């Protein structure tokens, strides 16, 4: 009986849930999916003759991937967790990819051909330390070789076959900071060298078979050490002294011997700060000083000599073993619009094995990393290929003086998104249209007819899908009447802009922002993008543009930088390096005569600066001066403050600068509450109506205010990961705060609950997701807020006679009486992000877009999160559409917007309204990109794209022909009847 009830309830819920399943030939018609890996930081080549040539890489997005060396395509890929950064990779036994991650605590082996996990080892340690991975190059397949891993203060020897820890040596009690693990070839002794404090050098000799300590040598160096120690050979280490003015070579075999060499011997008396570059050249190392890189060779007894001096823009690869005793490396730099690549032998510096130049687009910036690999040419000489990582995080493969392939992997690190309309279709704007001949046109409609009549073969279905994907209307560079074709302008962590076409996801243009790359701007951070100019129909001669805001430095008080970019051409219109900092940007709802949007930039001293800095802008702004408010949230201190502008004083610079005044503040006690999440309404959200008609034709009025802020706090003990606190120690408190007055409109406590909290605010409701420790399940709660001061407007006669207050202005300073309704539901999944659909007029019903832990996007009807749901709804509530109450929210497989695809590393979702009221455009980004368009209430205002116009035309022609034939037959019958 219980099972029957569950089945009946599931069927009932299905009736209320729109279905988003796709037919096989519809995949890719309205959506596209792009896969990336991110900025490469480690690479290992595998180019054996019997196998497919590939390169295995790890990236800053915690991705491990195997790439095809011929085309750059992904063979396989794994995206590790956000806290599982890769420390090193290598290849063992010719068939395993070995990866070390999580600060040296997780060692994995992946099957090289298909990427399946072979084994995984968790390495325990007692203190944080540098992580090191050592995989011997002479591994034999039939022998259980040892992989050495240093991390968490311990040295582990791990079996390369099954991942078992053979032995462990703990250095936690030794107080040594291990810098290098040295395993000489064909030796049973392992050396661990490092420093204790800043001046004591230690070297440990360890038995490679059982981890037994054989010998420990230590010696004090009076000058002290600075920075890392680099391995030059099996018995020699080099370091900088504490003053960074002397190079110290340390020979640790047969006792410890120090030898100092002053840097003035190489560069003269005048030199700046020296830095040892972390290269692995044999018997050689590199020092960056005075804008140059010195290559220094260590000769007998620790003597040093300069081999070469190159510009510091050059990048050096790790060494590549060509044959016994021959080691090569690459020296590469970018200049004059070309990549200059040189391959040299370590022991024969003057002879170049390879020297070539490759032309390159300047929009990729400078070179940051290079990895080389060799192959045998037909003449039996050594050829070289170079894998190059550029400043914009793109990846290139160079071979034989040309770029074999390139990957735009900067798109894996998007930090902000904006959209732009395409140009209006007119002469010189639209792209060339490929005209099809009559035969192809007839063939296409015949295939569509066969598909409609279910007579299409699998080949015909594939042909129909191909025709749809190649539809020129989808990828035109002009606007369409439905508003489906747009440009998605994305900003990446590297400071590069991309414009993606919504039709097929192609890159229309890209720009590596020059204003963020000049010599005055070091380490640009805090990047964000805003709509700057959005011309309407009366200003179509102006191109739309966006504003990019950044900081030239890591700290919040670093000076800001602004860049203005044309979204049609991708050209930087202008840029500005500011003298003040930027901690907050407020896009105002005011525009000037050229449709430029006014923005307020707030610095660390709470001074406000108006942009654009024009007389017209300041004139418009002064009319709304008294209505400008903003707030700040300091989660670390638990303080929320509200501010307003005040007239200029002596502290400000000019007429475009303003002081601020404190209005209110809310301080959360640090011993009981910690802010973990906030949410506010979108500034451009459209609300169709304030009234909500409920059962029995009653009316409730939504409390619509763009000044509401949702705040979630948790108990300090419950601010960590789930399970770190008991239910009795945990509570979650949520607030609705008016940011103009600081008034708390609503407060609710969830006992026994904790974060992480993900929330979305829309119209008069907020939905948030959290974890219930008592129930051991995730929950989603909804709060709806209504305006009771307009309840008297329900009288029809008052509406007819005009005696209502619907048009009276609303002020946050008037103490509006509000009423709230709330409800909580269990939810199966953990959540990464929550968004809500948005449409042009706000008429279409809302859907929640939930980014799940499985990196998929689930569409959930807002009606499932209606706080008025009850177990036994009345007949009037059923007619209204109220769904019977259940304790859990349903997850229907057909409701996944991403269907069978995964957006790996999902970080955010952006929804954009189309001109067609029924449709919302959805863009999801992470390591991958995904775009689609959805209709929460189905496409009630248009025909679907797969509507068969050919069949409709044939039907009309057949009906006309039938009418004509029957008319003729009727005329003949009437004539015969008259002759009788």
Question: What this model shows, in words?
Answer:
The termini are far apart. This protein has a 6-stranded antiparallel β-sheet with strand order 43-44-45-48-47-46, with helices on one face. The model is unreliable at 1-20 and 427-436 (pLDDT under 50). β56 and β57 form a beta hairpin. It has 8 helices and 64 strands. The protein has a domain at 948-979.
Strand content: 35-45%
Arithmetic mean of pLDDT: 84
The termini sit apart by 75 Å
- Read across the widest sheet, the strand sequence of neighbours is 43-44-45-48-47-46
Overall structural class, as computed from helix and strand content, comes to mainly beta
Radius of gyration: 34 Å
Poorly predicted ranges:
1-20, 427-436
Count the beta strands: 64
The helical percent reads 10-25%
Question: Could you say which overall geometry the principal axes of the C-alpha atoms support?
Answer: globular
InterPro entries: Beta-prop_EMC1_1st (IPR058545), EMC1 (IPR026895), EMC1_C (IPR011678), PQQ_b-propeller_rpt (IPR018391), Quinoprotein_ADH-like_sf (IPR011047), WD40/YVTN_repeat-like_dom_sf (IPR015943)
Transmembrane segments: 947-970
Main location: endoplasmic reticulum
Family: Belongs to the EMC1 family.
